[in-house]
Amino acid sequence: MKELRERKAIQALLLAIRRKTSALGPVRVMEVCGTHTMTIHRYGLKDLLEQAGVGMVSGPGCPVCITPAAMHEAAIGLVTGRPDLVLATFGDMTRVPTRKGSLQTIIPAPGSMVKIVYSPRESQEFAARYPEKEVVFFGAGFETTIPAIASAVKDAAKAGTPNYSVLCALWLIPPPLRAILESGEVKITGFLYPGHVSAVIGRAPYEFIPKEFGIPGAIAGFEPGDILLGILNILGQIEQGRPSVGLEYKRVVSPGGNPLALKLMDEVLEVKDAAWRGLGLIPQSGLRPRPRFSAWDAEVKFGLTIGSDAGELAGCRCGEVLRGLIAPPECGLFGKKCTPDAPQGPCMVSFEGACLVHLKYSQRREPGKSGPKKRQKRIRP
Fold it and tell me: Which of 139, 204, 227, 343 is spaced 20 to 30 Å from 352 by Cα?
C-alpha cells in the first residue's frame, strides 16, 4: 500500500482535485464510514481537501455510535436484573454512557458479569463451556460484521445451545442515507461509500441515490490515496453530469458483493424498522433473527421491550454529528466535559467515532505520515 501513502502521489491527486473544483466550484462530500473519517484526519487530508475545494462531512458510519441509548439500557437491564447472566460484547460497547451508567460502571446481579469478547464466536464458545450461565451476545455492527453474527446464531441453533442468545444491534447502511437525503437538513454533493460494507453488499444497494436524488458517489478503500481517488471519481461524475456509483476499491470489492455472506444473512436474519441514534426510526434499516431462530433472539427470549430511544445525556450533540449537521468541535462539551476518559456520548467512545477522531487528530499532520507537524504547505494547482 506504499504508493497509496506516498507524498508525491497524494500531492498529484490533490492537484487533480483542485483543477476539477476550479471549474466545478466547491463540493461537499459525506464520508459514510468511520474508518474513512479516521484516515482523513490522521493523514491531514481534511484541511488539504478544503484547500482544494472539497468539504468533508462525517456521516452515520459508526455502529457503536448509532446504536440508540434505549438498546444500551436494555443490555444494562439484563445484566443487572438477572442472576447468572453473562453479557458479552465488544469493548467499545461497554463504555457508552447512558442515564443508567455504562456496562463498564454498573453492578451486575449475583453471578452475572460483563465480558469483553473479540468475536461472536468467542461468546458462543463461552456459552458452550458454561451451560449453567445464560450468555447474551450484545452484537452491534453493519453489513461488515453481520455475517459473522448470523453465523453464530445459526451454529448455536444447529448445536442446540439453549443458554445462548444475541441482542441484535444490526444496522444496514443504505437506508439512513435515504433518510439523510429526504430530510433535506444537510447539503451533500456526493457520497464516499464504505469499502468494508461494500465488500459484502456490492454497489447495487446504493444505486437509488444517483437515480432518485441525482447525487454521485464512489466506493473507496482506506488509504489516503484510496480516498482521493474516490473523490476524483465523484468529481468526474459531476463534470460529466452522469451521477452513478463509482468503484475505486476493486482490489477488495466486486460489483455484486459477497454472495455467500449475503445468502447467510438472508437465511438467518430478516429486515425490520429500526431506531438510530440521532436519526430516529428508519424503515427497513435493521435486522433481527427470523422466527425459526427466535429461541436465540434475546429480545424474544427475555421479553424485552426496547423503546425508540432513551435520549442523549444533557448537552451531548452526538445525534447531530451523526446526521452531518455539525462538526464535533461545535458541541459545547467537546474536549471539555466530554473527553475519551469521560465520554458524554458514544461519538467520543468508539475508535471510529467522529468526536474521538477529531480530538485525537486535531493537530495538522504531514500527508503520508501519522505524526504531527508544525506547519503544512498549501497545495496549489
Answer: 204
Angle of the 34-42 helix axis to the 224-240 helix axis, nearest 10: 110
Which regions of the chain are under pLDDT 50? 364-381
Neighbours of 291 (CB within 10 A): 10
Tally of CA atoms within 13 A in the half-sphere of 14 that contains its CB: 24
pLDDT tens across 285-335, in order? 999 999 999 999 999 999 998 877 667 789 999 999 999 999 999 999 999
Q: How far apart are CA 303 and CA 309, in angstroms?
A: 18
309: CATH: 3.40.50.11740
Q: 30 in the Ramachandran plot: left (φ > 0), alpha (ψ -120 to 50) or beta? A: beta
Q: Is 102 part of a structural domain of the chain?
A: yes
224, exposed or middle or buried, with CB in 10 Å at 0-12, 13-18, 19+? buried
- C-alpha cell of 227? 480516498
Q: Could you tell me which residues come within 8 angstroms of residue 286 by beta carbon, excluding any fewer than 6 positions away?
A: 168, 170, 171, 172, 271, 272, 273, 274
Structural domain includes residue 380: no
- Cβ-based neighbours of 115, under 8 Å, separated by 6 or more: 86, 87, 88, 89, 123, 126
Domain count, the chain: 1
Instruction: Evaluate the CA torsion angle 297, 298, 304, 307 in order and state its sign.
Output: negative
**How many Cβ atoms from other residues are within 10 Å of residue 17's Cβ?**
25
pTM of the predicted structure, to 2 decimals = 0.90
- Which helix (H) or strand (E) segment holds residue 129: the answer is helix 120-129
Using only C-alpha atoms, the chain has a radius of gyration, in whole angstroms, of 21
Label the pairing between strands 134-141 and 113-116. Answer: unpaired
Beta strands 190-193 and 27-31, pairing class:
parallel
What pLDDT, on the 0 to 100 scale, is given for residue 312? 79
Q: Is residue 29 part of a domain?
A: yes
- The reported pLDDT for the residue numbered 310 is 66
Sheet holding 190-193, edge to edge: 54-58, 27-31, 190-193, 217-220, 245-248
The H helix count followed by the E strand count for the chain is 15, 11
Query: By residue range, what is the domain housing residue 182?
Result: 1-359
